[in-house]
Amino acid sequence: MSEVVFFINLYLVPGLTIGAVYALGAVGISMIFGILRFAHFAHGDLMTIGGYGVLTAVWFIPLHPLLLLPFGIALAVGAALTVDKFFYRPLRQLPTIYTVISSFGVALIFRSVAQLFWSSGNQVFIPGIRPPLVLFDTFRIATLHAQVIVLTIVIAIALHLFLSRSQMGRSMRAVSDEPELAAIAGLDTDKVVRWTWIIGASLAATAGVFAGMDTSMHPNLGWNLLLPMFAAAILGGIGKPMGAMAGGLIIGLAEELATYPWIGTDPFISPSYKSAVAFLFMVGLLLFRPQGLFKGRLL
Amino acid sequence: MNNLLSVSGLTAGYGGAPVIHDICLDFVEHQIAVIIGPNGAGKSTLLKTIFSLTEKSDGTVNFKGGDISTLKTSQLVPLGISAVPQSRNIFPTLTIEENLDIGTYAAPPEDKAAVRNKVLNLFPDLADKLDQPAGELSGGQRQMVAMGRALMSEPSLLLLDEPTAGLSPAYLEKIFDLLLDIRNNGVTIIMVEQNAKQALRIADQGHVLVNGRCFVSNSGAALLADEEVRRLFLGGVAA
After folding, report:
1. B87-105: pLDDT as tens digits
2. HSE-CB for A228 with a 13 A CA cutoff
3. Model-level pTM?
4. A124: exposed, middle or buried (C-beta count within 10 Å: 0-12, 13-18, 19+)?
């Protein structure tokens, strides 16, 4: 196997795959920060809930997990709208730190619920080993990785069109820009908040299923991905959903490519330390470019 | 001449502390009404109260004969009232086209394209910049975007809080000319202005507030000619 093919098969494609998971999660974090003005620490656990929604559907309906995504999305959206109604909305008029702390509590609730209903062990969507997709007799790519990358590209295009062309998308950007002016212009800000949760939770559920299928479902799945997703949201610029998409891909690629044997034959960074790359990105950005690559809001 | 908006016995403020007290004013249809007064007189608070952005403790606001005092801000736009705040009055990351479009969401006009053309005829400076983010514009052009957005819902009443604040003298004249055009298109305007003399020149009615209370009301020309008003509020020089 040539060096380039080895790089693409084992580093670039897996990097893009984990980047896609971060990207989909980071979009929700970025939108929630832009519109509701708080860092949603339960977003990773919302991914977990979505993942378990699809896992449960797989037990009863003999279809490919990706075809059962609507079940995970429905569960995550329902959970998000419920916690917003009972935990976040009553705190909306108080300083945002109250909502941030509340979201920590919600994260613990989601994780406990996941343990209670689905056990704390690892569970897989489809048992057994699947053969890779062979392209041009050269590239051997896991089918799931190809599906994740293609679906994420489709979602990114759809999200861009929604935010730039639709009335609700423009209203969301307007509320993110100037919430008081949006109210003065007569926009229904409650509806905008609902749609923010619907889109953020849908993408989180999708990311949760991708991550769960790539490894396995367990109650800490989303929580373990939270730090790189925040790094991605900050990298892209808080309140910039398309920036968060780009940020996710960059963080995912950076993590994977950091383990490539750039010098000699050993990995440049041991794979067990690769999540530190996201952490370094986040700290570096907060220090030197807190508005992110796409000129987002300052934290 | 019909009154489009009447406020009576209006007392309002922020955090339980009233800023305006017992205000009684009538605003006539298809006219420009200018509210002037010293800093802290409650001019902006009166405008915000009409638009349900403060805490009312007493009094009523009637629009086209109906009481709107208990309505929320978002309910006023579909009734035909639009407002432009003094600052942060555009969506900076949205393009000019998108800013104008946002103005139609709460009260969609029957013929959106026709209204858009009418607004762009009023503000031709914006026509060739429609794809530019509004945050990149100069102060005067931002004010035009803000007024354009407010006019896209075809309001019968336009509330403007210091539309010429921070603008160069050239733009100041331009904005006042535009306000006359907007009034001539059938829109009633109530505005708060620091450039009192220039504003009273185009005003059909003028109201002077002092310490949150009505001091005097008259036509713009009469206030400009009033010795006491000139001495106290217009720098003492002849208009």
Report:
1. 899 999 999 999 999 999 9
2. 29
3. 0.88
4. middle
Output the furthest CA–CA distance in chain B (Å, rounded): 49
Please answer whether residues A231 and A286 qualify as being in contact, where contact means their C-beta atoms are separated by less than 8 angstroms: no
Nearest Cβ partner for B88 among A171, A181, A186: A181
Residue pair A161/A19 in contact (Cβ under 8 Å)? The answer is no
Instruction: Report CB contact under 8 Å: B107, A173.
Output: no
CB pairs under 8 A between A and B: 62
So what's the ipTM on this one?
A: 0.89
For chain A, the residues whose C-beta falls within 8 A of a C-beta of chain B are: 167, 170-171, 173-174, 177-178, 180-189
Closest residue to A186, CB basis, from B74, B94, B101:
B74
Residue B102 · residue B92 · CB < 8 Å:
no
Q: What DSSP line would sit under A179-211, residue for residue?
A: HHHHHHTT--HHHHHHHHHHHHHHHHHHHHHHH
The answer to whether the CB atoms of B105 and A186 lie below 8 A apart is yes
b/e map of B7-22 (b: 16 or more CB within 10 Å)? Answer: beebbbbeeeebbbbe
The confidence band for B239, taking pLDDT boundaries of 50, 70 and 90, is very low
**Residue of A181, A191, A295 to mutate, interface with B, max B Cβ within 10 Å:** A181
Element (H, E) at B220: helix B220-225
Buried b (16+ CB within 10 A) or exposed e, B136-154: ebeebbbbbbbbbbbbbbb
Joined tokens for residue A91? 């705190």
Question: In which band, very low, low, confident or very high, does the pLDDT at A1 lie, cut at 50, 70 and 90?
Answer: low
* Residue from B105, B151, B158, B161 to probe the interface with A (highest A Cβ count within 10 Å): B105
* Strands in chain A per DSSP E: 133-135, 139-141
